[in-house]
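Could you join me in thinking about how sequence relates to backbone shape in a protein? Would you write everything just below, so we can both look at the same thing?
***
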Amino acid sequence: MNTLHMSQTYETDTGLVHMTRPDMALLHTAGLRERTRILEQYVREELGRILGIEPHMVDTTGRPMGCLGIGSISGIELQYRMENTLGVDVNLQRLLLANSAQELIDCLAGQFGPDAHLHGAPVPA
């Protein structure tokens, strides 16, 4: 099986940024507010890595994904990394057409937690 190495650090003009993998057990048990906070940090880190900027500089509310600089190629990379890290399906068209990164974060947050099956996530066995 051929797998792509997923870097946990990236470099910006100000130095190295170390990415933190989300705690999957916590994502499945935490309330919506906490899941959203965890996923916001994760999405900021992934977008920052693609854009080459610090995570805190990523605008999560004011700009559509395309205006952030996420196009088809970077969108596929983001989709792949999120699916592999989080273990959820990420619809590429929805990712690319999202009105903001927050919209993506909210969609991801709905796929975890005790009410995840209400948002289209698989029901745990």
